[in-house]
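User: Can you fold this complex?
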Amino acid sequence: MIKSFALPSKPSRLYGPNTGDYKRVKSFGVRMELSIAQPDDWHLHLRDGELLKTVVSHSAKQFGRAIIMPNLRPPITTTAAAVSYHDSILKALQGSNTDFTPLMTLYLTDKTTPHEIKLARESGVVYAVKLYPAGATTNSQDGVTDLFGKCVPALEEMINQNMPLLVHGEVTDPEVDIFDRERVFIETVLKPLIQKLPKLKVVMEHVTTMDAIKFVESCEEGSVAATVTPQHLLLNRNSLFQGGLQPHKYCLPVLKRETHRQAIVSAVTSGNKRFFLGTDSAPHERRTKESSCGCAGIFNAPVALSIYAKVFEQVGALDKLEAFTSFNGPDFYGLPRNTKKISLKKTAWKVPESYSYASGSIVPMSAGQSLEWLPFFP
Ligand SMILES: NC(=O)N[C@@H](CC(=O)O)C(=O)O
Ligand SMILES: [Zn+2]
Ligand SMILES: [Zn+2]
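Assistant: Here's the predicted assembly.
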């Protein structure tokens, strides 16, 4: 629902309430407020220890639920570890006024057993299993080296348990150009996997190319889906080098050229149910980003909703935002949609330069910039 309210201000855009259409209206003195069902984040890194305590509230105060990535050190490869990590997250939130629900994941390895998958389902806190090809991204060194040779029994049990496989979709072959790794993964791993196990539910995480968009669109709805990050909707690879090397814009899969960004924007703003919100918010201590070998990952939790709204607004598709942020994800996972509402106010707010904690600081996406669409609970 989109409503307008008066504020002394400059000309602004107005969207017809409940009509789903977009109108450009000269409306001096009018600012907007958008009311949507509370979103969930279907791809989130919360880390552990001090970093967990620093970042968790940024997600918990906006999102109802989040799929929590298991790439800790050591990784979350067992249900027992997932349950204990779940408890640490809730402990880190103690005293804060939130009913945030972490949905845990298991880190798939060559050794994951069908029994472990059963335990995961029985635990009631694990909702998915994550495939990191070994060496593809941050903390993926313990990931899968032989998916078809070693993991099929576990994957078959996931089908029995109706548990989706979440995929970091890049090949790791150093011979393959880094900008082609997602496309090659689709051809050499994902297509054969789906052919072999057509009943397996798969989420292609953080899609970055038109190849991924086309692939996901060609699959059966409800069987294969994709998450999309704020950075891959807003930025292209030029921004990595704009005015010098920009380590805080480096993530994996790396940003791609503008034509790919446009394909992602048009897919998510078309209302296609196969695409939903997954921030991939991935905090790293500032020193480890601004380094001679900087790590991959963008901390976007504080700005994600503002950026998603900005991108949907840019193409006149704010009426499609709520399905992307709040409906398509739970529908795919077979979970109820959130009933609580959140509002986004079209008012300028400044993103902090960084967030400090005892032993360091983290620089968020769009640090120091002015954004609009400030989230708040009515
Ligand atoms: N996206 C990233 O660049 N980094 C993520 C891992 C991942 O999601 O691939 C991280 O954990 O830092
Ligand atoms: Zn990833
Ligand atoms: Zn991630």
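The CA atoms of residues 60 and 100 lie 5 Å apart. The mean pLDDT is 93.
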